[in-house]
Amino acid sequence: MLRWAAIFLVIAIVAAIFGFGGIAAGATSIAKILFFIFLIMFIISLIGGMMRR
Fold first, then answer.
1. Would you tell me how many other CB atoms lie within 10 Å of the CB of residue 28?
2. Taking a C-beta distance cutoff of 8 angstroms, is the pair 3, 32 a contact?
3. Distances (CA, A) of 43 to 7, 9, 13, 38
4. Distance CA 13, CA 23 (A)
5. 6-49 pLDDT, tens per residue?
6. How many other CB atoms are found less than 10 A from the CB of residue 12?
7. Which residues contact 18 (CB under 8 A, 6 or more apart)?
8. Taking the model in full, what pTM does it have?
9. HEC per residue, the chain
10. Do 28 and 47 contact (CB within 8 A), yes or no?
């Protein structure tokens, strides 16, 4: 999932360089959503790992 967030971030940066505002905004929003999903899953796995000890 982190890979997808990184891919959409790169797409957003490349699109922003070329000036395609709609594509950049769409890719950036997808990257942000995937990043927050990954962050929540990471926190849940950290808490789950602490509970097993």
1. 17
2. no
3. 22, 22, 27, 9
4. 10
5. 888 888 778 777 776 677 678 778 888 888 998 899 899 889 88
6. 21
7. none
8. 0.57
9. CHHHHHHHHHHHHHHHHHCCHHHHHHHHHHHHHHHHHHHHHHHHHHHHHHHHC
10. no
Two tokens, residue 25: 């905004």
Contacts of 5 (CB under 8 A, 6+ apart): 31, 34, 35, 38
Q: Which two tokens stand for residue 13?
A: 């940066």
Residue in this structure with the two tokens 């594509």, named with its chain if needed: 23
**Tokens 């990471």 sit on residue:** 42
Distance of CA 32 to the CA centre of its chain: 5
28 residue type, one letter = T
